[in-house]
């Protein structure tokens, strides 16, 4: 292996420059609110020598701007959870961000699906982010290419979606120890995430979804998680946003009492009782019918409460008032609280937080808004956005939480999740209050709002409807209720509504680009014969065929519709001419008699139109012919670049539409009736000079097409 050929001075100078660069970066408006417990030098020393660039940074800067704009204007972003790139592509039209939910991934992206216990592999959510991000990049490439195929003036009519929607993702509790959090962060940044959240739930103890005994980790462990993620983002030099989610609002347990800051929320028995885990063990051995009932009974008999509540229960009012003053707002461990109580309260306080501990060692925890606020305030400097995850959307708690955090961090960005199980009316919301809920939250700085698990209800509901329709009405139901509606609302160049156009131009362009190089270099052509980018643009030929009738049954059964016959003829002809054989031909077919005609959006992608024959006559007074005549006039006037060809009836109707006046129709019924037979024609010199010599019934297409 070669050694790095650098003097020690040069190495030191490079390192110092890197440190300086990081320090400058941390002073930028995007970074300056973050307070790191480590130095720039530490980060510089943790970096490798090859600087990398991440899409995550661009997406984060975009989201950062969007959310700050919302914050300034008192508005908000409304998004929902998604794991599927097809759904994500449609969301781009209405949402400014996407959410990849851990719960959804746990149901749909793992080999062992089930309730969200965060027991899936660490890379599950990052992989979904990667999948969606790649799909976004593809859509943006596909759309850009399609637009560049069109002349500048035509582009204003085309769709131009911003498919690069920033992705917010669920990092849950970091999936393991701190090194797992570091690795997961790396996966997220590499996948292109704009922001991800970390919560303070305990690994391996997550219970879905509402309450039912959630367990949090000590404050210090939560802050370490956030620091681990922030450190890795800094090592990567990325702008990735970190959302600090806090779950203490609905937690029943905490894993440890190692952090003094948590002590005032930990509950203990205030009478000497047998330990809960032993009582439960005995009940299980005795095959007691309800362990839950035994537990509830024990909690009652143990008079479970926090130490401060225990003091209050036995102290006089004056003693308790003295006690609270002395405890004050500063952190006081249980040991310090006991000492203060001993000094002030005449009776002895019995308090034992070990007696209620679970079999797994968890302590009972008294969740309340103050506890959430305290954690959120400690976490805020490490992250960019704050989220208090609540089991029940209690409005008073929401107001209290957001105002208390804002008192310390006035410009704080907040997030809120409309968890799927929320029962708004039970939580006291009137229909009006539900309506204004998002904007009321926005007024408190909640700039990012999400319904994380919409898909569980939404996709189930829509799929169930379609499954029924398909079962009952088959292809007719599909055509009427899905296909026609999808095609009517969306232009053909967009999304996935018309599968044959979803990126087919882009796909063809790859072939064309390769083939063009082949023509220029591979087959000996001179460079000057290569097509320029401008000449290359329209090399795809798209022909629309308007079917004005159906062939007689025998022909139809063998050769299909007139449009199919034209397509076969033209493809065969093109295949025989080397210049044309390289051009991808696209055909779309319209049932003219049903008045299905190309929309103006579709016309922008069409090069030529063929109007077929029909048993009808151009002057017949039927609605579809009137519609066709209007269409032809509009086409002729507004789309001069589209070539029009009429065969038989098609030719008649063209002449009728373009040259008849109300007093002088050019196409009439022959008063002598039908005429059948062979009629010699003479080609005018102008025609011959334009298309070249034509023998009657040419044997080779080249006889017609060669100039
Ligand atoms: C956001 C969430 O973490 C998720 O996995 O989507 C869940 C969703 C839910 O419970 O509805 C959560 O809020 O915990």
TrEMBL record:
The keyword Cell inner membrane does not apply. SUPFAM superfamilies: Class I glutamine amidotransferase-like, Phosphoenolpyruvate/pyruvate domain. Its EC number is 4.1.3.30. The keyword Lyase applies. Keywords: Lyase. GO terms for biological process: carboxylic acid metabolic process. One of its GO terms (molecular function) is isocitrate lyase activity. InterPro entries: Class_I_gatase-like, Isocitrate_lyase, Pyrv/PenolPyrv_kinase-like_dom, Pyrv_kinase-like_dom_sf. It catalyses: (2S,3R)-3-hydroxybutane-1,2,3-tricarboxylate = pyruvate + succinate. Homotetramer. Belongs to the isocitrate lyase/PEP mutase superfamily. Isocitrate lyase family. This is methylisocitrate lyase. It comes from Cudoniella acicularis.
């Amino acid at each position: 292996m070669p050694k790095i050929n650098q003097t020690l001075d040069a190495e030191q100078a490079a390192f110092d420059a890197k440190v300086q660069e990081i320090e400058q970066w941390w002073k930028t408006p995007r970074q300056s609110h973050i307070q790191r417990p480590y130095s720039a030098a530490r980060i510089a020393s943790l970096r490798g020598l090859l600087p990398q660039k991440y899409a995550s940074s661009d997406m984060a800067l975009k989201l950062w701007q969007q959310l700050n704009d919302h914050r300034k204007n008192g508005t908000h972003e409304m998004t929902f959870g998604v794991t599927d790139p097809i759904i994500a592509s449609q969301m781009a039209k209405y949402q400014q961000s996407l959410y990849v939910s851990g719960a959804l991934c746990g149901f749909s992206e793992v080999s062992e699906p089930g309730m969200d216990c965060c027991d899936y592999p660490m890379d599950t959510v990052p992989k979904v982010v990667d999948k969606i991000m790649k799909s976004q990049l593809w859509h943006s490439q596909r759309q850009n290419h399609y637009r560049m195929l069109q002349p500048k003036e035509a582009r204003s009519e085309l769709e131009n979606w911003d498919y690069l929607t920033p992705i917010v993702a669920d990092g849950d509790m970091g999936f393991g120890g701190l090194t797992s959090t570091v690795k997961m962060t790396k996966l997220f940044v590499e996948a292109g995430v704009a922001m991800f959240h970390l919560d303070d739930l305990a690994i391996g103890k997550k219970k879905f979804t509402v309450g039912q005994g959630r367990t949090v980790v000590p404050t210090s462990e939560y802050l370490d998680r956030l620091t681990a993620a922030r450190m890795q983002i800094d090592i990567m030099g990325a702008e990735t946003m970190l959302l600090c989610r806090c779950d203490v609002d609905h937690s029943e347990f905490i894993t440890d009492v190692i952090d003094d800051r948590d002590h005032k929320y930990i509950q203990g028995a205030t009478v000497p009782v047998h330990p809960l885990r032993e009582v439960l063990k005995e009940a299980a051995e005795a095959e007691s019918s309800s362990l839950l009932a035994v537990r509830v009974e024990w909690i009652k008999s143990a008079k479970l409460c926090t130490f401060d509540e225990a003091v209050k229960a036995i102290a006089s009012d004056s003693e308790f008032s003295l006690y609270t003053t002395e405890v004050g707002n500063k952190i006081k461990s249980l040991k310090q609280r006991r000492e203060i109580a001993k000094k002030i309260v005449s009776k002895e306080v019995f308090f034992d937080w070990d007696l209620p501990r679970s079999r797994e060692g968890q302590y009972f925890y008294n969740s309340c808004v103050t506890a959430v606020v305290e954690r959120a305030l400690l976490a805020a400097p490490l992250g960019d956005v704050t989220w208090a995850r609540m089991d029940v959307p209690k409005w008073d708690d929401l107001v209290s939480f957001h105002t208390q955090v804002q008192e310390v961090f006035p410009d704080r960005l907040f997030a809120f999740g409309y968890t799927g199980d929320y029962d708004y009316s039970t939580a006291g919301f009137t229909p009006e209050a539900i309506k204004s809920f998002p904007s009321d939250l926005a007024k408190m700085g909640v700039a990012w709002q999400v319904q994380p698990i919409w898909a569980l209800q939404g996709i189930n509901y829509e799929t169930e409807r379609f499954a029924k329709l398909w079962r009952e009405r088959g292809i007719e139901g599909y055509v009427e209720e899905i296909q026609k509606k999808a095609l009517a609302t969306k232009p053909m160049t967009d999304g996935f509504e018309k599968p044959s156009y979803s990126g087919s131009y882009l796909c063809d362009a790859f072939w064309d680009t390769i083939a063009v190089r082949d023509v220029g270099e591979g087959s000996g052509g001179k460079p000057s014969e290569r097509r320029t980018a401008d000449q290359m643009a329209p090399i795809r030929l798209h022909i629309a065929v308007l079917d004005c009738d159906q062939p007689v049954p025998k022909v139809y059964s063998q050769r299909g519709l007139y449009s199919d016959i034209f397509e076969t003829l033209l493809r065969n002809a093109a295949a025989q001419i080397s210049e044309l054989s390289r051009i991808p031909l696209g055909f779309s077919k319209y049932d003219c008699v049903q008045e299905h005609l190309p929309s103006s959006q579709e016309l922008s992608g069409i090069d030529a139109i063929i109007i077929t024959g029909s048993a009808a006559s151009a002057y017949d007074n039927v609605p579809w012919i009137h519609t066709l005549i209007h269409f032809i006039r509009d086409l002729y006037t507004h789309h001069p670049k589209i070539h029009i060809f009429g065969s038989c009836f098609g030719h008649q109707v063209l002449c009728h539409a373009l040259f008849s006046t109300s007093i002088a129709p050019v196409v009439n019924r022959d008063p002598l009736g039908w005429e059948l037979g062979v009629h010699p024609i003479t080609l005018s010199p102008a025609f011959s000079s334009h298309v070249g010599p034509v023998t009657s019934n040419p044997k080779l297409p080249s006889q017609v097409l060669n100039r």
